[in-house]
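Handoff note, outgoing to incoming analyst
You'll be picking up this chain. Sequence as last confirmed:
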Amino acid sequence: MIQLAVSAQRLHVPVRPFTRPSGVAVLLNARAKAVNASVLETLGFIVPREDLFLSHSEAEAAEIADWVVARRYQTVFTGGGDGTFVSWVNRVLDAAERRHQRAPRFGVLALGTGNAVAELVGATPRRHASDLSRFLAGEFPGFRLVDLVSCEGRRTPFAGVGIDAAILNDYNWLKHQLARTPLRGLGLGAAGYGLAVALRTAPRKLLERTPGYCEIVNTGRQAWRLDGQGRRVGPSIAPGELLYAGPCMLAGASTVPFYGMGLRLFPHAGKVPGLMQLRVASDPKISTLLTNIHRIWAGEFSHEKIHDFHVDHVTLRFDRPVPLQIGGDVEGFREEVSFGMANSPIELVDFRAATA
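Most recent structure output, in case you need it:
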């Protein structure tokens, strides 16, 4: 039985107009910390209860996704962070493919810690009720098309191997260690990430003699090297050619510029339709990164040991297992992984359109 929530408990693509929305569903994860009685009560006043869905398990989430596709909802909002968004988008797109139906457009309600997609479309924490109310009132005039990365059969705005996934592992460890202590608040959000880096990621990095060795092969169509401003430099890289070989602290692929909390880690993502930005950090000094943190956060930092590409599909091979994250969720360790472009973009409600 599908559980309903009750009140008690491509940057390059111009915005397109559409008429007053109808058939809107809101999908929530009951196990998410941010989905509490207050959120449910608030959203229950905004949308009809039959359109507010709350999943308690993986099986129930798959059933809900199939239900909203079968009922042909025009717009599906997901409430949570990037991991929740990725999970719901994959389930809904899979259900639409099984039924040979057009997928609905998606909207984001920022309720999680990592909100890269929410930052892209102007959905911000603590404004989810206002955003949804204004959308239902027809105040947002359009949506944007957003390409997705495909990794291990899942569609996601971004994925990566190396230190970013290691930080997520360390954050989850710290959160678990503090969960049942008076200090549990320190293990959450930006403070938790900062502590995880200071206590585990940075010390481990300082003790590490050298990052793992990585070879990256272009397994798609033509790829391009980019300079610090995102301009193509040098000849194109043909299918089958080596893009990069050497030490690798981080290798990430993204179709959106943000990485959560305003970090513009992929400033050249979303600028060319059908291509993602691949960013490789070979072995820049920690001191260099720390002294340039503001430029890195703003997406304005370039360095000889940071290599950027626009690619369609790549395969990465390492000399040792490295941590992998997909859409902000840790996925264990891999010695080989591929990043490719998903078959088609999705349509995302654009909250920025009303204020652009």
